[in-house]
Amino acid sequence: MSTPWPSAIYLVGTILVLVLIVLYCRDSALRHIPGLPGAGYSSLRHVRSIISKGLLKDYVTWCRQYGELVRIEPNVLLTSSPDLVMHMSGVRSRYGKDSAFYLLAHLAPGKENLASLLDDPTHNRHKSLLAPAYTKDISGAREPTIDAHLRKFLHDVQSNYLSTTAAVKLMDLSKGSQYFTTKAIIELTYGPDFEDLLEDKAVAGLVEMPEGAFNMPGFLYATRLTKVMGLIGQLMASKEDTDDGFGKFLNVASRLKNSSAETKRLGMVQTYLQNGMSPEQVAHDALTQVLAGQVTVSAAISGIMILLMSNPRVLSALRKEIDAAVSDGAMSLDEVIISYAKALALPYLQAVVREGLRFFPPTVDPLPRVAPQEGDSVKVGDRTVFIPGGTRVLTSTWSITRNTEVFGEDADAFRPERWIGLDGPRSARMQKVADLIFGFGKGRCLGITIARMMICKSIFELVRRFDMALTEPWSPMSNVLNMGAWERSGMMVVVTEREDN
Ligand code: HEM
């Protein structure tokens, strides 16, 4: 009688050989690209970094250690090359958005919006229906709407959060600025006919979402669980069925059908309807733009304020410019909000905003792209590298905005003066690379002008009126990444009336 051992050994041996062949094949496709130890076989190092919240710093370290193109998983590369990012996202690029990541951009299962659309021609067509409302302020309401909400925010700070030497009241600046940006963008988007969307309860449905303990979308993406999540989402009840959270905003479709295009002040949604979009589609794109705009702009405001609080030299120089502008323009403190045209003419304010967005960008990694089927040869540094078809390429935004060749040897420092007195090709290159925080080419952000307007006005008015100090400078706020943007909370500050006012 034969013993079972030889066949068992044979089976184990075969499995082992098969595993080795699979690992070899996994590793070989990108073996020519330097990378993390073990990245050819497993995603563990990347996933660990996502969970540890150390992702951004790790990305910067890896790019500095291994070069502008680094292998971080068997089929995933990370780049810090601004030129490669522009190449991948350019209007005629054959790279696509990675469906496994952008699946998370759906607001309800299976319903598309501009950010979730993957197919280039469909995305371009869709974008052309939305873009006119961004590029042209058709009803002239954009600046007055932002001013009205900024005034309310400042009034709230003044009335409810001013501390004195006798008593301190703490204020969460990250939350306060998020309520301001959300309300302003809701009104810009829907117009004055949807007042109920501006009520605190409705706004809280977007702002007070349960704070993630860590970068959950990043985790789902790196562990390839996004598709499973998509299926679970399909099985669960649609968010449109509820009347809170996103539901309240997605439910506007039926009201949009009846809303008249003859309203006095048009919201952007009216233009989308006039351009032939269906009310259901408009409801999804309207909420997408509110979500895309509110987190990013408020993260920019709290990020720049934190930098100003920690850099007294910069704060004092900015104050000098602001005070001079106020006395020149004879602006009364209570009523007038700086006009965007005047803000654009203040060089130091512009430098602070540019430098703040560069140094502490509100949107960061990974904006993943997938290499075209036939692969692509790209120039990285001084060598040409072949990226096989289907390879995922992630962007390390922090590495890009801290590139010493573009921004100078002290790119790791906050120094607004680097933007002053510059012109010619160097300045153009700095601006182009810094603007990559808004994406590039076919996926470029539509809301840049609205964002800059809100940020410039808010920084001007907050600095002009108040002194602020962090209550816990050793741990100023909680920063959690969500779909590549910072969700900031708990930035507790003590606000006092300006001493030298
Ligand atoms: C400082 C503020 C902002 C930053 C840093 C920012 C950044 C970005 C980035 C990086 C993308 C590209 C995402 C990708 O390729 O996957 C994007 C897309 C987009 N952003 Fe912004 N954004 C900001 C403010 C806004 C505002 C205020 C709005 C609207 C009111 C807005 C609306 C959009 C829309 C609709 C898209 C999708 C564009 C497309 O898919 O073609 N953003 N943004």
Automatic annotation (TrEMBL):
Which keywords does this chain's UniProt record carry? Answer: Heme, Iron, Membrane, Metal-binding, Transmembrane, Transmembrane helix
Q: Locate the residues binding heme.
A: 445
Which InterPro entries did the record assign?
Answer: Cyt_P450 (IPR001128), Cyt_P450_E_grp-I (IPR002401), Cyt_P450_sf (IPR036396), Cytochrome_P450_monoxygenase (IPR050121)
Per the record, the GO terms for biological process are:
mycotoxin biosynthetic process
Segments passing through the bilayer = 7-24
- The protein's name: Cytochrome P450
Q: Which Gene3D superfamilies match?
A: Cytochrome P450
Listed GO molecular functions? heme binding; iron ion binding; monooxygenase activity; oxidoreductase activity, acting on paired donors, with incorporation or reduction of molecular oxygen
